[in-house]
Amino acid sequence: MTSIEEIKKRKMQEYLVSSRDAQSQQQMTSEQRQLMEMQAQIKQIMSTLLSKEAQERISNIRNIKPDFALQVEVYLVQLFQAGRLKPPLNDEQLKSILDQLVKKRELQIIRK
Hints:
Elements: H1 2-49, H2 52-64, H3 66-81, H4 91-111
Helix pairs in contact: 1-3, 2-3, 2-4
């Protein structure tokens, strides 16, 4: 009888582990879906907000520093939604915004 009970316990533990894994996978896929939707929205706003040259510059930045490119895109979207940017943003305007962000980063690094 003890071996049957042990088998039942082991099967129950395996079932619980597999159900937890399935729940965590569902949660990860929903988070991934939300992230993809957010990225699509950002991409759509960027296409209306930036000129071709500015889009190329962001693309080049994304190839080298993807985290910084995402930070820049989110910052630009926030400025656009607040009404502080008027489309289309040309390459020179984007350069000045990038300079400001880089200076902010340097100041933060110096303080630490």
